[in-house]
């Protein structure tokens, strides 16, 4: 595209890339109106980063209901830290498990930490192996530490 002086486009929809924030927001809102879970999750994360937790919770809840893994992950942390919601370990765990099932490696790592705290190293190891297979480098480092500590064998 660059060599042929063609306009850069989105690799998924082939729509020209936004030139400014206003156009980008318009495009995202159009995708949200079409019930795109990724767009809802993106907007929710944007509000979460800006510490507007009420709006973030609304967008993330809708996106999670539609199956967005990142939204489940962030909601899990919102329930953990009490951001706009009461702290709730069961809901935190539910959202982290949903994110992990959907392939979110950070959720796997969070679940591994929980399992380590509950002294279930075999389950923690399984979560870390899956996260490492998803390409998460920190999980690989944690597995190395587990190996050094004798909790993981080469066969694992």
The assigned CATH architecture of the largest domain is Alpha Horseshoe
* Tally of domains: 2
Average pLDDT rating: 89
**CATH class categorisation of the largest domain:** Mainly Alpha
* Shape verdict: globular
Percent of residues in beta strands?
Answer: under 5%
Say how many strands there are. Answer: 0
**What is the CATH fold-level name of the largest domain?**
Serine Threonine Protein Phosphatase 5, Tetratricopeptide repeat
Largest sheet composition: none
Task: Give the SSE string.
Answer: HHHHHHHH
InterPro entries: Sel1-like, TPR-like_helical_dom_sf
Précis, in short:
With 156 residues, this protein is an all-alpha fold. The chain is 66% helix and 0% strand.
